[in-house]
Amino acid sequence: MADIQLPMRPMEAHVEANRCLYCFDAPCIHACPTGIDVPAFIRKIADGNEIGAAKKILEANILGASCARICPTKVLCEGACVLHDRDEKPIEIGRLQRHATDFVNERGIHVLKPPQKKNGKRVAVVGSGPAGLGCAAELAQLGYEVTIFEKSKLPGGLNTYGIAYYKLKPQLSLEEAELVQDLGVEIRCGVEVGRDISGADLQRDFNAVFLGLGLGNGNQLGIPGEKLPEILDALEFIEQIHTNPLHQIPIGNQVVVIGGGNTAIDAAMQSVRLGAKRVTIVYRRSEAEMSAYEFEFEKAKNDSVHFLFNAVPIAFVDVEGHVAGIRLGRTHTAKSGKLEMIAGSELTEECDMILKAVGQEKQADILRTIFPSLQIGADGVAVRDSLTGATNIAHVFVGGDCANGGREVVNAVGEGKNAAHGIHTFLTGERASLPTQPSRLGVASGASGCGLHHPIRAHELEEQWKRARAAEDGGVTRG
Question: Are residues 349 and 367 in the same domain?
């Protein structure tokens, strides 16, 4: 199954790199949640130094290769490109990033090296998804011994199991996990924290803990017929594609996808590529209210995906134990802003397969199982300091979907990096110092979203730790 966007040829990359203005106060850096120094790596490509470009990228984002494929660059770095102001086409930053990272990956070139000295401190990371890998890689380069605990058989989290195949092949995700292991990080797969090992065990054996869990199972609609075998959660459908040969993936002739987000778009376009004859996205609100990115919406339309807006599922049509359609009611938005179903507006959309993309469950229960005293917000996600990832348990840090409720992969990597620096300051009282472009130290503060240039108040974290120790029952000894 071909990629939706082809890689650049060497000459094409060279020409595109030479279009860059190499801005000093570069808004593309500010727009990147991991703070990649975009002008610096593009200049290296222009100079024919792809290895140096890849090093610059991976120092900032260990998942730079996958992010080059799946990041919404049109609304992040490319969306911030100053060429927009000149009515010119923005630099194709994502494709240039892929060009550089593919160059080293295809040649087996290791641009990042583990530190020669360890600092003697150990950190546990729960979850090997983007947040966990981002945190672990940063900590490893700071000299920590890091162990990742992953409940699945393979590392990578969402990148391995939950990204549409036409965007990202799981093999690349596994190769990125190997990059993290090459930095000295241990990944223990098939180990579920809260079941196979307790939070108390982690508190005892490690100096700090980072929780980088993703989200849980897909939400249920709670309407009749939902248990029919041809009705799947969209992420379950995508996981099948990542774990089985493509020719073995069952696909209907007429597929209905329920939802209005990027996952719905992914499921629909994946269905088209697997051979579905007609694919329809059903969304309860209007086109203008879809949460999917506009460029993703346009791609789906170009793939002949149909859209049915202002339609809410009422029931699934059951014919001899199999789905034969979906009953819908038309909706409108009342003056109060509330969505209402129009009386007598029911219709039936015929289909033989349905994919639900209506959000995922929060991980509040699992987080409480691991650390009963962890503060969870009303929205079901862990409460944390947005810059450092620190929680009310001062040696426990969080990041990624279990803390932000579900955002982009690059946001998760950035939050993992934030937490790594927060952990480092908490354990040492020092601010971390990793490669960056000195000229941009001032302008990056507060703008890039990665928070790496914000001072962290170590003494305040220490006071939090003391208060947490006093409040917790059992007097667990911490490393």
Answer: no
Q: Nearest to residue 421, comparing CAs of 452, 391, 449, 397?
A: 452
**341 in the same domain as 251:** yes
Q: Which two tokens stand for residue 442?
A: 């001032």
Tokens of 325: 């359609």
What Cα–Cα distance (Å) separates residue 8 from each residue in 11, 16, 296, 359? 8, 9, 21, 34
**DSSP letter string, 306-361:** EEE-SEEEEEEEEETTEEEEEEEEEEEE-TTS-EEEPTT--EEEE-SEEEE-S-B-
Of 130, 129, 126, the residue nearest 148 (C-alpha): 126
Q: What is the pTM of this model?
A: 0.87
Which residue, 356, 372, 400, sits at the end of a domain? 356
- The enclosing domain of 309 has a CATH number of 3.50.50.60
Query: Per the domain annotation, does 258 fall within a domain?
Result: yes
Confidence class for position 478, pLDDT limits 50, 70, 90? very low
Candidates 34, 245, 236; CA nearest to 130 is 34
Last residue of a domain, one of 75, 107, 139: 107
Average pLDDT over every residue of 276-300: 95
Kindly state the average pLDDT of the residues 20-46: 96
CB distance 464 to 365 below 8 Å? no
Domain containing residue 167: 122-216+361-471
- Per-residue HEC secondary structure of 63-93 comes to CHHHHHHHCCCCCCCHHHCHHHHHCCCCCCH
